[in-house]
Amino acid sequence: MPAVVIVGAQWGDEGKGKATDLLGSRVDHVVKFNGGNNAGHTVVIGDEKYALHLLPSGILSPGCTPVIGNGVVVDLSVLFEEIDGLQARGIDTGKLRISANAHVIADYHRTLDKVTERFLGSRKIGTTGRGIGPTYADKMNRLGIRVQDLFDEKILRQKVEGALELKNQILTKIYNRRAVAVDEIVDELLSHVDRLRPMVADTALLLHEALERDEIVLLEAGQANLLDVDHGTYPFVTSSSATTGGACTGSGIAPTQITRVIGIVKAYATRVGEGPFPTELFDDDGDGERLRVNGGEFGTTTGRPRRCGWYDAPIARYAARINGVTDFVLTKLDVLTGWDRIPVCVAYDVDGERVDEMPTTQTDFHHAKPIYEYFDGWHEDLSACREFSDLPQTAQDYVRALEKLSGARISAIGVGPDREQTVVLHDLL
Ligand code: GDP
Ligand code: IMO
Ligand code: MG
Q1: 339: which of 234, 304, 393, 394 is 20 to 30 A away, CA to CA?
Q2: Which member of 21, 29, 41, 138 is catalytic?
Q3: 10, 42, 44, best to mutate for ligand 1 pocket (most atoms within 8 Å of CB)
Q4: What φ, ψ does residue 200 adopt, rounded to 5°?
Q5: Burial level of 141, CB count in 10 A (0-12/13-18/19+)?
Q6: pLDDT by residue (tens digit) across 22-52?
Q7: Distance CA 113, CA 213 (A)
Q8: Could you tell me if residue 48 is inside a domain?
Q9: CATH number of the domain to which 332 belongs
Q10: Do the strands 65-68 and 307-309 form a parallel or antiparallel pair, or are they unpaired?
């Protein structure tokens, strides 16, 4: 009963969507287990390009059942917009199942996300403004609204009243905003209920039964290891568990059922939003801008330019440990074409001392300066390579060096955004 997990090994946008789509036709279920529409996954299939936010990337594979697990926070307007958009392009979304226990993003969560960021000023996180943090905070505070609450209007009203009693004090007295009416929220949520009802299921049971039948379940993370609320660069993180542990709690699948963990890692590094990033390039010589332009590094969700830097091996090793990575997919190797030599961070200098692993404290990580090793680059276009031996020797050496430094084998290499633009070294399933 194979359950396979896909996680981001850096700060997100590693190409999880492409990897999930690549395996989609061979798996029976693809489960999103954390996050919400803060995610942005671009999937390219031939001439068609899809930008997915809330829906699991498996939705593009006919035959595969996409599942939104209990660990996800669901913005219902976004859900139906995304479904409508795909249906208009001929994608069948009829198999989608949503956990009755998933939490719902309400309008006041989006408002609070934005006003809190403004309030924080220079200490802001740089969130996507989608209401993710406030919705997870309500979940932990036991003030959240779950998908199943929409099926009992009395309960829903009680819960919204309870949440707004506190929220309205905060909105009016701290942030000087207008109070939100209970009816406004209840009516908006209930407007989705008829369409939602047939999709809602006990998804943990459904997945358990699928595994019993020996079907393959792929668990697809949003965000990444360093954006995980426990293991990331807190407080500059998202508010969910984006790691393998979160795949269990966010889906109801037990750890003993996970057979494979695939870490997605870019051949360089990017980050969106605030927070430490030791190998970030500040463009003394234009390398950061070159990576950004060559890699198309602009956010799928917010359109913000992504911060760019060189590959950081200690954070890849950290991701391998935290997630139990069995295989890495190294993406966007093609973007590195054209450099004479490519720096790779192998350790940090923290206030004059060499530190080989992820520093223990946030302060040390903020002070960490990369110690680089340099590898010979290549000038050939890699986009048509399909076998490892098609890669120029220096690109092969670069991949082997990253593999040695990163704590797990590299089983596939991305050489372009299309499904087909992949070099497979070891089967991922
Ligand atoms: P995700 O959030 O991890 O799913 O990643 P995003 O979709 O936000 O960002 C990855 C971007 O890189 C997307 O635009 C993909 O189409 C693109 N991409 C993925 N793999 C490759 C690759 O190997 N080479 C190139 N050039 N682009 C890739
Ligand atoms: P995918 O799944 C990159 C970042 C935001 C911000 C922080 C908190 O496409 O890899 P939030 O709105 O979640 O409270 O914002 O996390 N962030 C992402 N960065 N890729 C993502 O998702 C992200 N989702 C959130 O930029 O710094
Ligand atoms: Mg993304």
Answers
A1: 304
A2: 41
A3: 42
A4: -85, 135
A5: exposed
A6: 999 999 999 999 999 999 999 999 999 999 9
A7: 42
A8: yes
A9: 3.90.170.10
A10: unpaired
Phi, psi of 418 (to 5 degrees): -75, 145
Paired tokens of 309: 């830097």
Ligand nearest to the CA of 385: 1
Among the listed residues 13, 75, 113, 327, the single catalytic one is 13
- Residue 13 is a catalytic residue: yes
The structure's pTM equals 0.97
Any idea how long the chain is?
Answer: 429
- The per-residue pLDDT for 284 is 73
Q: What is the CATH number of the domain that holds 67?
A: 3.40.440.10
Instruction: Give the CATH number for residue 187.
Output: 1.10.300.10
Q: How many CB atoms lie within 10 A of CB 427?
A: 10
Clarify whether 208 is annotated catalytic. no
33 belongs to a structural domain: yes
Q: Single out the residue of 70, 73, 128 nearest to residue 99, CA to CA.
A: 70
Of 203, 247, 192, whose CA–CA distance to 225 is shortest?
247
Q: Residue 156 belongs to what domain range?
A: 103-194
Shared domain for 307 and 405, answered yes or no, is yes
Q: Residues 6 or more apart from 221 whose CB is under 8 A from it?
A: 5, 6, 7, 8, 16, 33, 34, 35, 242, 243, 246, 247
Helix (H, G, I), strand (E, B) or coil at 390: helix
The three-class DSSP label of residue 92 is: coil
Question: 416 near 334, Cβ under 8 Å?
Answer: yes
212 burial via Cβ count (<10 Å: 0-12, 13-18, 19+) = exposed
* Strand ranges in 351-421 using DSSP code E only, listed in sequence order: 353-355, 369-376, 409-414
pLDDT tens for each residue of 166-189: 999 999 999 999 999 999 999 999
Q: Are residues 275 and 204 in the same domain?
A: no
pLDDT higher than 70, residue 1 = no
Strands (E) across 183-332 are located at: 200-201, 217-220, 258-266, 269-271, 307-309, 311-312, 327-331
Written as six digits, the tokens of 281 are: 């390039």
Q: Give the Å distance between the CA of 291 and the centre of ligand 1.
A: 13
CB 338 within 8 A of CB 407: no
User: Is residue 334 domain-shared with residue 352, that is, in the same domain?
Assistant: yes
